[in-house]
């Protein structure tokens, strides 16, 4: 009697390689039905990515190559980006896409697939990976393959005097010169005497 594999079984070497490369061999469709990519299709896609997977030995060798590639190229300790714009991460790896996991400051988890930046070839020595825009400002933990970094998402500009006046319900005072004098006086008071020379 043959035993049917379920979603809770340990993945086969081929499926483990596919997951490691950022592919989803199993998913749930729009009608809430489980779907599985055929092994032949996974092998073709993995081969196209330069990851042989015809045998269990090739799958393990390809997974080992991915692990060594991640270990050989660390991400910078901090990557910065602007809220609402795609995130460009330095990525001198060979693969054109990688799965990522982003843990936001509040603990929420975002997962997806990062793709090679425009103009980068799949086998160049430099390059970037692009993540979709992040709309939450803060310091988040990004995991790209086995590599990880802090991702700082900032607003497009700083909170200014005009914002403070609008927030206080005094937007009509924006045209008065004294509103700006406060900020220049505060800056002048905060700078060291050595700057004055």
Set out the fold topology.
Layout: H1 13-20, E1 26-28, E2 34-36, H2 39-48, H3 56-72, E3 78-82, E4 87-90, E5 97-103, E6 109-116, E7 128-131, E8 138-144, E9 147-154, H4 161-167, H5 178-190
Parallel strand pairs: 3-9
Antiparallel strand pairs: 1-2, 4-7, 5-6, 5-8, 6-7, 8-9
Describe this protein's structure.
There is one protein chain. The protein is elongated. It has a 7-stranded mixed sheet with strand order 3-9-8-5-6-7-4, with no helix packed on it. A two-stranded antiparallel ribbon has the order 1-2. The protein has 2 domains: 59 residues, no CATH class; 80 residues, Immunoglobulin-like (Sandwich). It is built from 5 helices and 9 strands; from the N terminus they run αββααβββββββαα. 28% of the residues lie in helices and 25% in strands. With 197 residues, the protein is of the alpha+beta class.
Observed structural traits:
single chain; 197 residues; alpha+beta; Immunoglobulin-like; 2 domains; seven-stranded mixed sheet; two-stranded antiparallel ribbon; 5 helices; 28% helix; 25% strand; disordered N terminus
Number of strands: 9
- Give the strand order, joined by hyphens, for the main sheet: 3-9-8-5-6-7-4
The CATH architecture of the largest domain is Sandwich
CATH topology of the largest domain: Immunoglobulin-like
CATH superfamily of the largest domain: Immunoglobulins
The biggest beta sheet is recorded as:
7 strands, mixed
**CATH structural class of the largest domain:** Mainly Beta
Q: Which word captures the global form?
A: elongated
Count of all domains: 2
Radius of gyration: 25 Å
SS-based class: alpha+beta
What percent of residues are in strands? 15-25%
Tally of DSSP helical segments? 5
Helical residues, percent = 25-40%
- Low-confidence segments: 1-7, 120-125
């Amino acid at each position: 009697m043959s035993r049917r594999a379920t979603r809770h079984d340990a993945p086969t070497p081929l499926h483990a390689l596919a997951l490691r490369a950022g592919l989803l061999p199993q998913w749930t469709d729009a009608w809430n039905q489980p779907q599985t990519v055929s092994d032949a299709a996974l092998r073709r896609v993995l081969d196209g990515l330069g990851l042989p997977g015809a045998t269990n030995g090739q799958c393990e060798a390809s997974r080992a190559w991915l692990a060594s590639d991640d270990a050989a190229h660390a991400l910078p300790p901090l990557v910065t980006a602007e809220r609402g714009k795609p995130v460009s991460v330095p990525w001198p790896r060979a693969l054109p896409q990688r799965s990522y996991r982003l843990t936001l400051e509040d603990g929420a988890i975002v997962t997806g697939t990062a793709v090679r930046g425009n103009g980068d070839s799949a086998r160049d020595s430099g390059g970037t990976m692009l993540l979709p825009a992040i709309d939450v400002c803060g310091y988040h933990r990004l995991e790209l393959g086995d590599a990880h970094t802090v991702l700082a998402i900032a607003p497009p500009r700083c909170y200014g005097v005009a914002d403070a006046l609008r927030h206080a319900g005094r937007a009509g005072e924006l045209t008065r010169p004294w509103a700006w004098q406060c900020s220049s006086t505060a800056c002048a008071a905060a700078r060291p005497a050595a700057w004055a020379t």
